Amino acid sequence: MIGLRNKKAVGRPTWTGSSGARPPSVGRVLVYVALIALTLLFLAPVIWAVLSSFKSRNELAERPPSLLPDSLGLDNYTEALSRFDFTTYVSNSAIVTVSATVLTLAINAMAAYALAKYNFRGRNLLFLITLGTIMIPLQIILIPLQQVASDLGMTNSLLGMIIPPAATPTGVFLLRQYMLTIPDELIESARIDGAGEFRIFLRIILPLCKAPLAVVTIFSVIWRWNDFLWPLVIAQSQDLYTLPVALAQFNSEEVVPFNYILAMSVVSMVPVILIFLVMQRHIVRGIAQTGLK
Amino acid sequence: MTVAPAPAGRDRRTPDGRRSRRSSTPWNQRLAPYLLVLPNMAIFGVFILYPAVNGFNISRFDSTNARTFTPVGTQNYERLFSDAEFFDAARATAIFVFAFVVLSTVLSIALALLLTQPIKGRTFFRAAFFLPVLLSPVVVGLIWSWILERQSGALNSLLGGIGLPEPGWLVDGPLALGVTIFVGTWMHVGFYTLIMMAGLQAIDQSYYEAARMDGATSWQQFRHITLPLLRPTMFVVIILSMIAGFQAFDFIYTLTGGGPLGATTLMVQYIYEHAFRTPIQYGLAAAGSVILFVTIFGLTVLNFLYGRRKESV
């Protein structure tokens, strides 16, 4: 990483180019103060929610609220899972997230490879369409899309949540940009060795694309696990609710006590935070590498 | 889906054949790209392109049950443009998107500048700002509505404890819209910061060295090196945040539910409620959808053209 020395609005001459140790200046102290204050703003609500998820209903109603829970008992968690059927919603979310991500990775990578490494009629048009569809988020075609899903009998099924948003244009774009950097000679020599087209894709191209595939995986998992509007439209019966749909619906109907809602909110945070911690360097590198256009 | 290898085709190829004589490309190499793009493009077609076009068609029909439709011509639009709720939603959306884009862009530049300083614990700070990006918007809305609750919320308990007034964050219309903008920015800004950081790190350090040798102040360096060279990145962030702003729905659903009295009901919620909540007014939703679609598409294209022109100057 490169240390940028230009501080906004600190307004002092810069002879701070060297990276050697020096006494803390006013500017550096201000940087730390700003960072710590902002970090509090970003972390405090989440930490507060996690701490409070262990509190009983009575503790939550206290005013002023106590900072720490009386105990770290898991009652809220176990009762929400058993008494309010959150096991079903968590498993619906998991099924949708995993299968949608696998499907997205497969079809995005295939399309990206064709767009990057083959010369074929219609390639430029398909690439333009890919770029164009980036500008059409699901929200703005919600009504006609719901019509298509209903015509195809996909409403009220997990399949209907998984398939329609699976072909992500950003995924195709990101993977294609990366695949362009793979030398053609690699593919040519594999052909000369007698490898079939699909085999080259599976055995040579995909293993070289671990970094961008990791980025697509992370974004797909985060998006699908947290997605709300499309599952809300598709799930008509309660047993098809995903975790976010269940949380939103039960919270607005006030049928489930808030201590359970809070515990299940924390459950919803765990998988994405774990994935992020494991793969975080891929995200930063992926964004830097693909340069985002 | 497998493509069988075809040795015969490969043997037929001449050294320079691939470019001059199309027919000498083995059939499997000609077929493969179409099979590879097929699944992805089929889903594009059926679930993005067709709905995008069909949206215009649907907006000429009305329905009260989303199953049987009656053609009504342009009546949906006439009704939409005489619907006060639609104008409230459009106005709230315009305010929300504008403030959200400006805040996201400015804050992500500021945060990216802070986070690229040579500081201790940089990885920790970066992760902290990125955390809200990982959370479900539904959960973000839930947590903030609980913290900002007027009577028993943590923030007002804190404010009351030190003798400050306790505002009705989510029950006062304009204030609630402000809170919505704040929470939206809180949730997304970490992602834009990451993009800005990539942009900052792509700037050649020799510019700064030269400027320092000429005695440029930090502010001058920022104003005349960082900002101009960061423009392409800012352009990406502006487009992404604009699209995200128009999409805003899920965190508002649990933060304010669109209230008080529709003050935070944005376009997506307006469309959702008219299409899927009784009493169903499908025509209004479909027409509203088209308006939103045209707005986003138009603004993105304008943005793109403007960005292109700037870059070519």
TrEMBL record, chain A:
Cellular compartment(s): Cell membrane
GO biological process: transmembrane transport
GO terms under cellular component: plasma membrane
Pfam families associated with the record: BPD_transp_1
Keywords: Cell membrane, Membrane, Transmembrane, Transmembrane helix, Transport
Domain annotation ABC transmembrane type-1: ranges: 90-279
Presence of keyword rRNA processing: no
CDD domains found in the cross-reference section: TM_PBP2
PROSITE patterns in the cross-refs: ABC_TM1
InterPro entries in the cross-refs: MetI-like (IPR000515), MetI-like_sf (IPR035906)
Biased composition (Basic residues): 1-10
Positions of transmembrane segments: 29-51, 94-116, 125-145, 157-179, 200-223, 260-279
UniProt membrane topology term: Multi-pass membrane protein
Family of this protein: Belongs to the binding-protein-dependent transport system permease family.
Protein name, as recorded: Carbohydrate ABC transporter membrane protein 2 (CUT1 family)
TrEMBL record, chain B:
GO CC, one annotated term: plasma membrane
Regions of compositional bias (Basic and acidic residues) in chain numbering: 9-18
Record bears the keyword DNA-binding: no
Domain of life: Bacteria
Compartments reported by the entry: Cell membrane
UniProt region (Disordered), positions on chain: 1-25
SUPFAM superfamilies: MetI-like
Residue ranges annotated for the ABC transmembrane type-1 domain, each copy included: 90-303
GO biological processes: transmembrane transport
TM spans (from-to): 31-53, 92-115, 127-147, 175-203, 224-245, 284-306
UniProt similarity note: Belongs to the binding-protein-dependent transport system permease family.
Cited PANTHER family: ABC TRANSPORTER PERMEASE PROTEIN, DIACETYLCHITOBIOSE UPTAKE SYSTEM PERMEASE PROTEIN NGCF
Protein's recorded name: Carbohydrate ABC transporter membrane protein 1 (CUT1 family)
Protein's organism: Herbihabitans rhizosphaerae
Biological classification of the source: Bacteria, Bacillati, Actinomycetota, Actinomycetes, Pseudonocardiales
